[in-house]
TrEMBL record:
Keywords: DNA-binding, Nucleotidyltransferase, Sigma factor, Transcription, Transcription regulation, Transferase
InterPro entries according to UniProt: NTF2-like_dom_sf, RNA_pol_sigma-70-like, RNA_pol_sigma-70_dom, RNA_pol_sigma-G_actinobac, RNA_pol_sigma70_ECF_CS, RNA_pol_sigma70_r2, RNA_pol_sigma70_r4_t2, RNA_pol_sigma_r2
Domain RNA polymerase sigma-70 region: 26-91
GO molecular function annotation: DNA-directed RNA polymerase activity
Ranges for domain RNA polymerase sigma factor 70 region 4 type: 133-182
Assembly and interaction partners: Interacts transiently with the RNA polymerase catalytic core formed by RpoA, RpoB, RpoC and RpoZ (2 alpha, 1 beta, 1 beta' and 1 omega subunit) to form the RNA polymerase holoenzyme that can initiate transcription.
Claim: Nucleotidyltransferase is one of the keywords in the record: yes
Protein family: Belongs to the sigma-70 factor family. ECF subfamily.
Record Pfam families: Sigma70_r2, Sigma70_r4_2
Keyword Nucleotidyltransferase listed: yes
Organism listed in the record: Amycolatopsis thermalba
Superkingdom, natural source: Bacteria
Protein name: RNA polymerase sigma factor
Length: 328
């Protein structure tokens, strides 16, 4: 994205002390800054909070905006450091060890409707917003994470990233090399050219699979549900801990033994949606005696060759998730 305002106008507007003028200038960056915070934190609610914190800090620091960098760069610097401050204070957000890759209990899905509108922007490239990428980034220490996102996702030069993080160029280069090794380890077989978006829209396969997944729930068709799953399915249900690799049959048997698809837990409705540029199903369950179906879970699907290879479920009971209707 290029800034079509003159730098002098930006400096005057930011430093004017006029709150309305300041908001009009900075608010257009809210969505992309929120995505940036989400990549840093993997949690949608926290990303919203830290984006707001970014604007508050920017307002209080407005006299420091000298125009040495573009306004957008200045805001990204503030947002990045706000996230780093947040991570420094949170013991539950330490880097995820490789052997505990599935323990990301704070992971939340990101609603596509809140992504920036420009589909060509690297900030919304599908490869850098999918859940697997977001989880992989959490394996990086916070400052290494920030370097990786600024350099390899946003495409900043090393000198610009170094200035934003108050590091040397050599430190940034070293951190990026280590981050790339970790990302390759965490995303084996995935396309790793994050600055050249390959896809944005769902494929016909993805649309078909999510419709069939919902249909299988609504008809309590366990055989049909099993047929949609790969036999090396990776499954997680957050905020419970643990991602398991399981066969399709064992996955369905486990859901049934846990009470799903049994009397009292067998009246389903589903709504197809998208989060993190991935196909997803909002699942609603009607309890006996309840006149309405209530939001139960959000299932995010990673589809490979017409089968569900990864299924990440998010418990949505009693939560206003992603502005979905609470009942059907």
């Amino acid at each position: 994205m290029t800034d079509d305002r003159s730098l002098g106008d930006d400096i005057a507007a930011v430093r004017s002390g006029d709150t309305a003028r300041f908001a009009a200038l900075t608010e257009r960056y809210r969505r992309e800054l929120q995505v940036h915070c989400y990549r840093m934190l993997a949690n949608y609610a926290d990303a919203q909070d830290l984006t707001q914190e970014t604007f508050l800090r920017a307002w209080h620091k407005r006299e420091s905006f000298k125009g040495h960098a573009a306004l957008r760069t200045w805001l990204y610097r503030i947002a990045t450091n706000a996230c780093l401050d947040f991570l420094d204070k949170r013991n539950d957000r330490t880097p995820v060890p490789s052997e505990l890759a599935s323990e990301l209990r704070y992971l939340q899905p990101y609603p596509d409707r809140m992504l920036p509108e420009d589909p060509q922007e690297s900030v919304v490239a599908r490869e850098t917003i999918e859940l697997a990428f977001i989880v992989a980034v959490q394996h990086l220490p916070p400052r290494q994470r920030a370097v990786f996102i600024l350099r390899d996702v946003l495409g900043w030069p090393a000198s610009k990233a170094a200035e934003a993080l108050e590091l040397t160029v050599a430190s940034v280069t070293s951190a990026l090399q280590r981050a790339r090794v970790t990302m390759r380890e965490q995303l084996p077989g995935r396309r790793l050219d994050w600055r050249s978006p390959a896809t944005h829209e769902l494929s016909d396969d993805e649309r078909s699979v999510v419709r069939s997944y919902i249909d299988a729930h609504e008809r309590n068709d366990l055989g049909g549900l099993s047929s949609l799953l790969r036999d090396d399915l990776r499954f997680a249900m957050l905020p419970d801990s643990g991602t398991v690799t399981t066969t399709a049959k064992d996955a369905v048997d486990g859901w049934v033994s846990g009470g799903l698809f049994q009397p009292g837990h067998d009246d389903w409705r589903g709504v197809p949606t998208t989060v993190n540029r991935m196909p997803a199903a909002a699942l609603y369950l009607r309890a006996p005696g309840d006149p309405e179906h209530r939001l139960f879970a959000i299932a995010v699907l990673h589809v490979v060759d017409g089968k569900i290879a990864e299924l990440t479920g998010f418990d949505a009971t009693g939560q206003p998730w992603l502005d979905l209707p609470p009942t059907l």
